[in-house]
């Protein structure tokens, strides 16, 4: 895309996206090229031998460029890139492409078909093997680009600290980004809970998503972004960049003086916890200054498997997750699958509305064998590692469901059972629902989706999903009141827990733990340390008293202490 | 022709890094090395896609075969490689 564009803009222009990973960044734009597909009108080749030589050369050039990239990244990414280069050099791939050429396909289609032959085999194997499919398809897309002579998809090579701009980033792309060179990430698509947002926050790279026209910014144009406010300035003047940098420096300074458990200024405890999705996240979060895990998503154990993972297989994975948290809490969410991410071994068939269908605990009710195997594995791993393991069910709507789940958890020898509060009906009757269990955890992302009837995957509905929507805050407030009457602790494990101003409001509403991307913990710790419980309650009242989401944010921003807001 | 049977020690099975290390070692030998699950068709041990497509998991047996000078030594070193938990190192 870069060639067709006008040279660097000189006129400064400010746009707004959604800030999803805190911090400020300034640097030239590197545009990520979209995946390349074989042209629909590609005919058969005239000279099969020459075509095969082209295909061979295309794969070889992909291998060379991957190996070249591998020399410039850290150890983990290096291994991924080297293994991917081995795939590009595989003789089997060239042989498969030769068969496709002989069958009358063009160069690009032969490459793509050869790749899909292997991709299908890996997907059928499931588990760890299926995870390699993305790498294999990446090799295919790069080889197709090479044989067509168009720019390679993905992040082009660059050597100076830059801001990565894309339609959206694939998880593998984000994971192999060089943190020393990527100062910021901006995407045109994605949402608050997209892969880009979650990974950027975990990697500590400032990021803004949902920036209209992001992919049209010319490569090389300097831009400044603020991952807290979502503000992006194209060709900014140096004054703004300096002001942003100074604020970031003051923030870093303020954060450096604080450590340890979360406390309000008057000493009330608010546990600061991490959201994690696998063993690697657990190891990274375990090394940080936080009190444990508030949400361990277990889907990765199941999603790519073709048959139900055994108790032994699961125990091994859970042991790896719990080990870094000996003596700290780990809140595990049991399997949360549905028709939108069906399991090969527990597919209940397609549904018109997967978000409202047989998912979460409803799937566990259909297949209690899956839940029991998971609970058994969790219990074994908990005993072996000494982590304070607590288990909660997703998508609970009624007190009966909560009671059913709690009984199964205790029968499997786990001491503490809880439920996610993400269905508005359960939030309104939190007193009854939480009375059956030991604790509750507000999943604010899904709670907002169900309260506002707005699909989380629908980027265009982002405004409705704004966690500052007074309707959502009211539902959260009512759930907290119910939890208090039932004398059960309630926490928040949605992304809103990582917004320092919103965290204060949540504490004011009665929340006693906040679970977020680990990189957001320090600023939330600072926010808490500057406000008393009474002040948090006043902020919560101000937010709920507002008529619109923007008004709620503005009211809280104005009423919060300037020692905090000056840094945001 | 030399043959060995070995149990996969890697906790994640023969994929990703363990598979890459195995393929690199097999390629470095310069011999025609093949790998198979017992009773199944063998695949070229220098093809990472072939090796991964075997789908050999932790605790499963595989059969290695090689021909030519140094076949025994090559297989011994490959057996040693597969007997370690490569992903944990």
From TrEMBL, chain B:
<dbReference type="GO" id="GO:0016740">
    <property type="term" value="F:transferase activity"/>
</dbReference>
<dbReference type="InterPro" id="IPR050399">
    <property type="entry name" value="HPr"/>
</dbReference>
<dbReference type="GO" id="GO:0009401">
    <property type="term" value="P:phosphoenolpyruvate-dependent sugar phosphotransferase system"/>
</dbReference>
<keyword id="KW-0598">Phosphotransferase system</keyword>
<protein>
    <recommendedName>
        <fullName>Phosphocarrier protein HPr</fullName>
    </recommendedName>
</protein>
<feature type="domain" description="HPr">
    <location>
        <begin position="1"/>
        <end position="89"/>
    </location>
</feature>
<dbReference type="InterPro" id="IPR035895">
    <property type="entry name" value="HPr-like_sf"/>
</dbReference>
<dbReference type="GO" id="GO:0005737">
    <property type="term" value="C:cytoplasm"/>
</dbReference>
<comment type="function">
    <text>General (non sugar-specific) component of the phosphoenolpyruvate-dependent sugar phosphotransferase system (sugar PTS). This major carbohydrate active-transport system catalyzes the phosphorylation of incoming sugar substrates concomitantly with their translocation across the cell membrane. The phosphoryl group from phosphoenolpyruvate (PEP) is transferred to the phosphoryl carrier protein HPr by enzyme I. Phospho-HPr then transfers it to the PTS EIIA domain.</text>
</comment>
<dbReference type="InterPro" id="IPR001020">
    <property type="entry name" value="PTS_HPr_His_P_site"/>
</dbReference>
<keyword id="KW-0808">Transferase</keyword>
<keyword id="KW-0963">Cytoplasm</keyword>
<dbReference type="InterPro" id="IPR000032">
    <property type="entry name" value="HPr-like"/>
</dbReference>
<dbReference type="Pfam" id="PF00381">
    <property type="entry name" value="PTS-HPr"/>
</dbReference>
């Amino acid at each position: 895309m870069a060639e067709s564009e006008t040279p660097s803009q000189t006129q400064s222009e400010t746009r707004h996206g959604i800030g999803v990973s805190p911090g400020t960044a300034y640097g030239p734009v590197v545009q990520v090229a979209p995946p390349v597909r074989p042209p629909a009108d590609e005919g058969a080749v005239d000279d099969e031998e020459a075509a095969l030589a082209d295909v061979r050369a295309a794969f070889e050039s992909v291998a060379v460029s991957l190996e070249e990239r591998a020399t410039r990244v850290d150890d983990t990414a290096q291994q991924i890139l080297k293994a991917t280069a081995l795939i590009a050099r595989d003789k089997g791939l060239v042989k498969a492409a030769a068969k496709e050429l002989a069958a009358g396909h063009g160069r690009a289609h032969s490459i793509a078909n050869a790749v899909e032959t292997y991709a299908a085999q890996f997907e059928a194997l499931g588990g760890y093997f299926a995870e390699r499919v993305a790498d294999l398809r990446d090799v295919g897309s790069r080889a197709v680009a090479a044989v067509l002579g168009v720019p390679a998809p993905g992040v082009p090579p660059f050597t100076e600290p830059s801001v990565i701009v894309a339609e959206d980033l694939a998880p593998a792309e984000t994971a192999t980004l060089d943190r020393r060179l990527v100062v910021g990430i901006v995407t045109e698509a994605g949402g608050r809970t997209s892969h880009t947002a979650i990974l950027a926050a975990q990697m500590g790279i400032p990021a803004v998503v949902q920036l209209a026209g992001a992919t049209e910014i010319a490569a090389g144009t300097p831009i400044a972004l603020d991952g807290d406010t979502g503000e992006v300035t194209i060709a900014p003047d140096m004054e703004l960049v300096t002001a942003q940098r100074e604020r970031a420096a003051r923030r870093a300074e303020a954060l450096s003086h604080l450590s340890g458990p979360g406390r309000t200024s008057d000493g009330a405890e608010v546990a600061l916890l991490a959201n994690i999705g696998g063993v690697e996240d657990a190891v990274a979060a375990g090394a940080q200054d936080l009190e444990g895990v508030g949400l361990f998503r277990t889907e990765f154990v199941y999603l790519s498997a073709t048959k139900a993972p055994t108790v032994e297989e699961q125990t091994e994975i859970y042991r790896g997750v719990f080990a870094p948290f000996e003596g700290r809490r780990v809140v595990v969410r049991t399997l949360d699958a549905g028709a939108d991410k069906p399991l090969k071994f527990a597919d209940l068939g397609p549904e018109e509305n997967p978000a409202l269908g047989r998912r979460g605990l409803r799937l566990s009710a259909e297949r209690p064998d899956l839940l029991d195997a998971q609970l058994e594995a969790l219990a074994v791993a908990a005993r072996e590692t000494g982590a304070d393991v607590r288990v909660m069910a997703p998508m609970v709507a009624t007190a009966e469901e909560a009671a059913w789940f709690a009984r199964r958890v205790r029968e499997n020898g786990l001491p503490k059972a809880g439920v996610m509060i993400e269905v508005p009906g359960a939030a309104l009757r939190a007193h009854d629902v939480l009375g059956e269990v030991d604790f509750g955890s507000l999943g604010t992302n899904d709670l907002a989706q169900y309260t506002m009837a707005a699909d989380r995957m629908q980027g265009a509905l982002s405004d409705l999903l704004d966690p500052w929507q007074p309707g959502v805050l009211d539902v959260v407030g009512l759930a907290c009141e119910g939890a208090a009457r039932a004398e059960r602790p309630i926490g928040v494990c949605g992304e809103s827990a990582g917004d320092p101003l919103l965290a204060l409001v949540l504490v004011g509403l009665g929340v006693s733990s906040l679970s977020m991307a680990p990189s957001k913990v320090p600023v939330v710790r600072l926010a808490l340390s500057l406000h008393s419980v009474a002040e948090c309650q006043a902020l919560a009242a101000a937010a709920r008293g507002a008529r619109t989401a923007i008004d709620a944010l503005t009211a809280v921003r104005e009423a919060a202490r300037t020692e905090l807001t000056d840094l945001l | 022709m030399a043959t060995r049977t070995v149990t996969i020690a890697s906790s994640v099975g023969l994929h990703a890094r363990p598979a890459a290390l195995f393929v690199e070692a097999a390629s470095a030998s310069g011999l025609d090395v093949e790998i198979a699950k017992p009773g199944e068709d063998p695949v070229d041990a220098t093809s990472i896609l072939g090796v991964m497509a075997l789908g050999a998991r932790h605790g499963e047996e595989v059969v290695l075969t090689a021909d030519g000078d140094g076949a025994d030594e090559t297989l011994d070193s490959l057996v040693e490689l597969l007997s370690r938990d490569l992903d944990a190192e």
